[in-house]
Design brief:
It is a single chain. The protein is built from 20 helices and 15 strands. It is an alpha/beta fold. The model has no long low-confidence stretch (mean pLDDT 96). Helices cover 50% and strands 15% of the residues. The protein has helices at residues 21-40, 55-63, 68-85, 99-115, 137-142, 170-179, 187-198, 227-232, 234-240, 260-273, 305-315, 317-327, 339-369, 383-400, 404-426, 428-431, 438-459, 464-473, 478-483, 489-492; strands at residues 5-14, 43-51, 92-95, 118-128, 133-135, 155-164, 184-185, 204-205, 207-208, 216-217, 220-225, 252-256, 281-285, 288-290, 335-337. Bound molecules: 5'-O-[(L-methionyl)-sulphamoyl]adenosine. Residues 11-14, 22-23, 25-26, 51, 231-232, 234, 255-256, 258-259, 287-288, 295 line the site of 5'-O-[(L-methionyl)-sulphamoyl]adenosine (MSP).
Length: 519
Amino acid sequence: MTTPNFYITTPIYYVNASPHIGHIYTTTIADVLARYHRLLGDNVHFLTGTDEHGKKVADAAREKNITPQAFVDAVSAEFQAAFAEMKFTHNDFIRTTQPRHETLVQTYIKQLIDSGDVYLGEYEGWYDEGQEEYVTETNARTQDYKSAISGRPLTKVKEKNYFFRLSKYEDRLKTHIENNPQFIQPDARRNEVLGRIRDGLNDIAISRSTEPWGVPMPGDAEHSIYVWIDALFNYLTAVEAENRSEFWPANLHVVGKEILWFHAVIWPAMLMALDKPIYHQLYAHSFWIAEGRKMSKSLGNFIDFPKLQTYANDFGLDAVRWFLTRYGPMAATDADFSHDAFIEAYNQDLANTIGNSTSRVTNMLNRYLNGTIPGDQGEPDDTLQKAAVQAVDQFRGGMQTLKLADALANGPIALVQEVDGYIERTAPFKLAKDPANLPQVGGILANCAEALRIASVMLHPVIPHQMTELWNRFNLPYASQLEAGETAFNAWTEWGGLKPGDTLSQGDPLYPRYNPPKA
Ligand code: MSP
């Protein structure tokens, strides 16, 4: 049997701003999915990177009085440092200023010129200089001839440009989206795209003669390739330049909803034009707002990377990953990052549920049974075994459909809550008072430990740091097996992994409860 490939990407981030929660969020989601697929045993390739061309970047460099190259080097390094601090597990980090990228972008565009899908034409109409975007007459009118982003007046331009024959791919694209419901998700985003395609697709300008900070148009140094076109190619250049073409087509592009159109329409059409297979799935998540309002530096609710670092320092990386993954805007609605919600999630899910249950079970097992799974476990009782089968099933389904919040709530969290309920009902702490009950106590605690073991496997992609610690305490070799690529989610989530004689140690709480200072 061959190992399936799983190629997952994030957007490549603009270097005109420093990393913030939005960038960390998308990359966290991709990291969780990459780790999950490694756990499944897939051959994972996880790509992220920085988008370094275009006017906004050149302007930002000019403002700082440094060369664009020096500027992009510095900001890209900032992203890489932030991602290292988050312990993200990307396999590659692409920068669009790297020769490996630029060379291939030119090759692709050359191919499109030769095939006639890119042609020299003339554009006459409205232009948003700040955004480097052409604006249709209708949109310009509704925006009162001002930029929708900066509010500055649009300019009227007439210029020679290279165009991509997007209109040619309208039917094929529409049919593909209609026939493959998984291609663009969630459904709200898919419908949005279909609605707009039905309004018709026009050819798009893909070059700029006014911005030299970009990849030169092959054969015409007067023009550079529009930054968005250059950027989209990263997903392909990163694997083709490294002899990893076996990873193409990508399995999953994770992006934010504001860049849906480029990824859902322009990118697949370009792939069709290049005669390359198109990616399997695009998932466009929604946005974080903060303390109930759109994030902004002037409102003081902007969650930049240093702010996330304070949460990571106070609560651990797992806590940040947990909050983002379990309560984030994966679905079609935005999510609110509030300090109170963060604390609540930490205390409720990590401290009181996962951490507390682990402490209770390992403590009792150590107190009553020397920390050893006993051979004599009294009457068999399959309550938790049944709960575990169901939780794993729910978890798998949720991960498969990218309903991460449901996957976690109905998978591992539901299972740990079952463990707590089971302890309350069976009361091993009372039974243990009479030595005659020890076999029964042993059976109860072995069931609990086994259920926690299975929960920890499901939780590991999201909260890998303390789940690795749990594996250490349970003397499970999973971390090194994972490292060595000997992974098997199926085997590890099957009931019966802990055997009589296995020892489990206790330790400090995995997630100590946080008590906010009294006001
Ligand atoms: N450079 C382009 C993408 C090119 S991909 C071929 C770009 N870069 S960006 O730096 O602006 O990053 C945008 C991405 O950051 C969004 O698509 C999303 O993944 C993430 N986010 C930015 N702000 C966000 C929130 N407030 N909330 C969640 N994610 C958001 O666009």
